[in-house]
Amino acid sequence: MAGSIVEKVRMIVATAVAALALSGFGALQAFAETNLPAYVIEQFGTPPKIPTGDLSDDLKSAVKTAFVDSVTNSEWGRDQEIALKDVSESGDPRLVWIISDLLRFTSGRQLDASLNAAAAKLLGKELPTQNSWGVVTDHLIAWDIPAPPKYLESKRAIFTSIVPGWDKIFVEGKIDWRHVSWGGVLIDDRAYDTTDKTCNCIPAADNPAVSSAENAKWLKDDDVVFGIEVNGEYRAYPRRIMEVREMVNDTLGGRHLGIPYCTLCGAAQAYFTDQLPDGIERPVLRTSGLLIRSNKVMYDVNTYSVFDTFLGTAVTGPLAEKNIKLQQASVLTTTWGTWKNAHPETTVLIEELALGRDFDFRNNRDANGPIFPVGNVDPRLSVHEDIIGIITASGKPIAFQRSKAVAALQKGEEIAYENVRLKLAAGGIKAVDEKGRDLGSHQAFWFAWSQFHPGTELWSG
Length: 461
What we know:
Layout (H helix, E strand, L loop, with lengths): L1 H20 L6 E5 L5 H7 L5 E4 L3 H16 L5 H11 L7 H10 L3 H15 L9 H10 L8 H12 L17 E3 L22 E2 L3 E3 L11 E7 L2 E6 H7 L1 E6 L2 E8 L4 E2 L1 E3 L12 E8 L2 E6 L5 E3 L4 E2 L2 H5 L6 E2 L2 E4 H7 L4 E3 L36 E6 L5 E5 H9 L5 E2 L2 E6 L2 E5 L9 E4 H7 L4 E3 L2
Parallel strand pairs: 4-8, 7-18, 20-25
Antiparallel strand pairs: 1-2, 3-12, 5-18, 6-7, 6-17, 8-9, 9-10, 9-11, 11-16, 12-13, 13-14, 14-15, 19-20, 19-24, 21-22, 22-23
Helix pairs in contact: 1-3, 1-8, 3-4, 4-6, 5-6, 5-7, 5-8, 6-7
């Protein structure tokens, strides 16, 4: 599949870069000042100066020759090398965003080497001569390099030519399209409750079959599960299943739920998808196949509205226009043995939903840190430190280091911050208010929480 996608990209990238080249850029203007945290400079170095304004006609021509003509004619010759040199000497790092998008899909040693060299020149960095997409993108994000004018137009052309279903995804909204990348899989665009049909995607599960705890002989006591309670009804979602499905649309305690699990950021969340304003159809959450700083991009298959996965806020499409924000239920990350002992009446998803697979991404694929670009990471904790995240009543995000919180709670200490109180529950940690009411907390890796909540408070213990 990857090979066919790459070949298709080689034929269609010309359209995307043409949109960039013909977007009416004019003369270069003064350089903008950049204000970055000290740790970013320490890790990534000093950023290049950033021009503002348009490109000259000569540079537009060079962009067209270097990118458009090379892909259209399936060749890389002297004219392209000369034009790419002009691009690389333009001093405009904004163009590296389009180079980064091309690097994500293109193959071919010579083309990759040429694109890498151009990116290195524009960023003022030494880069690998091959497969530098992640390194390039990390620098662009960390330095907060602005996108060139009409960037979404060019990016949309690239991505939607690969997967036509993305044409409804790449639209204007409250989302930073610079940070969106391809996760290596295709969109799950199956209609609601048709998830028994296979797909060339990460397959969500709608209305999954469940069994009693007594009949779940396939689960071991130390298997990780995500436990959810709604209106006195309990259900366990085994991590083994969620690593295959990554999205479940379910009904529990008389409420509809959308439950995304991002393997890359160690976060399972539960959103109520009912009790919305009149005229709003239940959102049915799906995996788009896209990532934003190594966090899944989820969307509603009915309206193609994209949601901020960590916040539950619609950021594009009809639901964003109506300012839809989904409320969360708490998700407890615990073990099956502890969960079923605390809640023997629990139901649990059946083994067949794992589709015969048994992944452990956390301890294998993701063990050494994020595998996709994330840019800068707040250095107060290590990237894969488990935290419990919550938004206070005043709107302030706060993270509690899980290991320290567990130790403190086991000693009988109180953990409180504004209206938030933490308590141990069935082997996990839950955030409640002063009256014990659920506040909708969940566990995640520090890098993910901190980048979606920059400036988050961190409980010091």
